Fold this sequence. Notes:
Elements: H1 3-17, H2 21-37, H3 41-68, H4 90-97, H5 100-103, E1 107-111, H6 118-131, E2 136-140, H7 141-153, H8 157-166, E3 169-175, H9 182-195, E4 200-205, H10 212-215, H11 220-232, E5 234-238, H12 244-255
Parallel strand pairs: 1-4, 1-5, 2-3, 3-4
Amino acid sequence: xxxxxxxKDLVVAQARALKMPGLARVLESLARQAREEHWxxxxxxxxVLSAEQTSRRDSAVRHRLREARFPEMKTIDTFDxxxxxxxxxxxxxxxxxxxxxxxxxxxxxxAGPIGTGKTHLAIALGVEAARQRRRVLFTRxxxxxxxxxxxxxxxxxGRLQRRLHQADLLVLDELGFxxxxxxxxxxxxxxxxxxxxxxxxxxxTNLAFAEWVKVFxxxxxxxxxxxxxxxxxATVIATKGxxxxxxxxxxxxxxNDPEDTSATLPKTGRRA
Length: 272
């Protein structure tokens, strides 16, 4: 084995021992490029360290995305803004994707009928926050309330509350689908109150604010207090339009309909 090959193996082993896998992966190709282009030592060192930085950044983003527990990956560029009847601005969502509101501990509320893209946008903004290496946690409202009740009964409520509070962004999906009893409503109220002006929340709901009292066991005082805190520093985005899922289903059924010959008929010209 040549001296150069031995040195390369030693450097790779050292990089792995120092937990620098990015450097280890690119060492051979960058060393070859450095010899061919006559790089100086400083330039070569800069390139391998830059590769390690990129590797660590990408690894951190992957970890944040796994940690967030998104049910599926949704991105802004796959959202159909044209189907929202002008209710949602692509420019506005792109601005929110920068995450400045998270740094200010502000909130976002997506409110509208079922199937109008609320969860898609909530996940997409959560994904962007995770890519910025922020701590994100996605959960359905009913699931987090159930977890809080179970933790309370097991006398582990404080531990769960601390874990939830660590998230820079909590994505609370489907608030309003399942009503809570008084105990569950109070636990959710305490969770969101603890985050007020400290951490950000995205909420998706199919209910108007006036209907939230139904979710919280008819407790008007608790509901009013919660809305006061949640909406104080919030961007409220109302979604509308036909359900994305129903529209997609209808399109699929039309395309599979043997009676439908519109796809094969020639188009007639528009008469003046």
